[in-house]
């Protein structure tokens, strides 16, 4: 599946906020975007990240968030619930990273993310996309992809 990435809009924000997942993750945390709009008039995600919607066949298929920190691209992501478990995960991760590298046009040496240790399926997807486990703490499991 091919994904195209476009900046977050209020319409996409509301749609993604309504996504519900089964298991320990019930929804994607979109509150920071709503708060940033109230405070600044701009859509800014958690930790000041830039949010993008992944489109497939013209329909929203996922969320990708980016922060450039030094020589690393820090990412957060979610795939639309009905697309989970259908074999798109690793390709989605790779395409999102490729988009981020092109979008920011800066020298990057790694990509970092944090995942809930209980989210075994996501960890398998990240490992398939060549991420390595770094450390686990109260924030979650830190993983890194060396470019």
Structural class: alpha+beta
Q: Please bin the fraction of helical residues.
A: 25-40%
Work out the number of β strands. Answer: 7
CATH topology: Aminopeptidase
How many H/I helices? 4
CATH superfamily descriptor: Gcn5-related N-acetyltransferase (GNAT)
Strand neighbour order, sheet with most strands: 1-2-3-4-5-7-6
| Mean residue pLDDT | 94
Regarding quaternary structure, what we see is single chain
Folded structure, characterized:
The chain is an alpha+beta fold. The chain has a single domain (4-146), classed as Gcn5-related N-acetyltransferase (GNAT) (Aminopeptidase), CATH 3.40.630.30. It is built from four helices and seven strands, in the order βααβββαβαββ. A seven-stranded mixed beta sheet has the order 1-2-3-4-5-7-6, covered by helices on one side. β3 and β4 form a beta hairpin. It is globular, with a radius of gyration of 15 Å. InterPro entries: Acyl_CoA_acyltransferase, GNAT_dom. Keywords: Transferase. It comes from Planococcus maritimus. This is GNAT family N-acetyltransferase.
């Amino acid at each position: 599946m091919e994904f195209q990435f476009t900046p977050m809009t209020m319409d996409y924000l509301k749609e993604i906020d309504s996504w519900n997942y089964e298991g320990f993750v019930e929804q994607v945390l979109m509150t920071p975007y709503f708060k940033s709009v109230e405070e600044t008039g701009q859509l800014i995600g958690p930790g000041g990240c830039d949010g993008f919607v992944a489109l497939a066949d013209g329909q929203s298929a996922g969320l990708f968030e980016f922060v450039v920190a030094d020589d690393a691209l820090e990412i957060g992501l979610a795939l639309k619930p009905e697309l989970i478990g259908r074999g798109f995960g690793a390709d989605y991760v790779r395409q999102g990273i490729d988009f981020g590298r092109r979008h920011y046009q800066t020298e990057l040496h790694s990509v970092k993310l944090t995942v809930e240790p209980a989210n075994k399926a996501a960890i398998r997807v990240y490992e398939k996309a060549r991420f390595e486990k770094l450390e686990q703490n109260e924030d979650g499991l830190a993983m890194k992809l060396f470019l």
